[in-house]
Amino acid sequence: MSAPSTSRPPQGILFDTNFLLVPIRFGVDIFSESERTINTIVEFLVTPGVLQEIEYLKKTAKPSFRRDLEFAEKIASQCRVLDEEVNPSEKVDDSIVRIASKLGLIVGTTDAELRKKLRAEGVKVLVLRQRRYLELDG
Fold first, then answer.
1. Which terminus of the chain faces fewer neighbouring Cβ atoms within 10 Å, N or C?
2. Does a structural domain hold residue 5?
3. Closest CA to 108 of 135, 130, 126, 129
4. HEC assignment per residue over 79-117
5. pTM (two decimals)
């Protein structure tokens, strides 16, 4: 008879669109740096809304920014896509706040306004510091 499992499920980190751009803009490996910062096994997540936002931005982006967005898509492909849709009257950032709060996720973002909304809801936020490393806020 085997002993009961005492391992915890991985901590979920939900990335927003601008956080997916951190590796190409600042050269920070958001995957290994997230695990270092959280100091546990991490499951990396994105929402369908984030993927839709990247697609939308690519349509009107200048070529250099389009390349950055394509890179962000590659980063996002390494994440699990949550089965949570954006409500029709909801902005992507508001859906991130709702989903993270409901599921107890940490959110990776560099968006100051989104960070304020998340902190108001008691959601922990992974932020970029000094353009070199990540830090957990909250």
1. N
2. no
3. 126
4. CEECCCCCCCCCCHHHHHHHHHHHHCCEEECCCHHHHHH
5. 0.90
Evaluate whether residue 50 is within a structural domain.
yes
Task: Tell me the C-alpha distance between 136 and 138, whole Å.
Answer: 6
Please, what's the b/e burial string for 36-68 (b: 16 or more CB within 10 A of its CB; e: otherwise)?
A: ebbeeebebbbbebbbebbeeebeeeeeeeeeb
Position 120 in a domain: yes
Nearest alpha carbon to residue 24 among 110, 138, 115, 124: 110
Instruction: Pick the closest to residue 72 from 138, 117, 123, 26 (CA basis).
Output: 26
pLDDT of residue 103 exceeding 80? yes
Give the separation between CA 95 and CA 53, rounded to whole angstroms. 12
Domain encompassing residue 76: 20-137
- Does the pLDDT value for residue 132 go beyond 90? yes
CA 106 and chain centroid, separation: 8
- Could you identify the residue written with the tokens 């009257």? 89
How far is Cα 94 from Cα 64, in angstroms, rounded to an integer? 28
Report the alpha-carbon distance of residue 3 to residue 31 in Å, rounded. Answer: 31
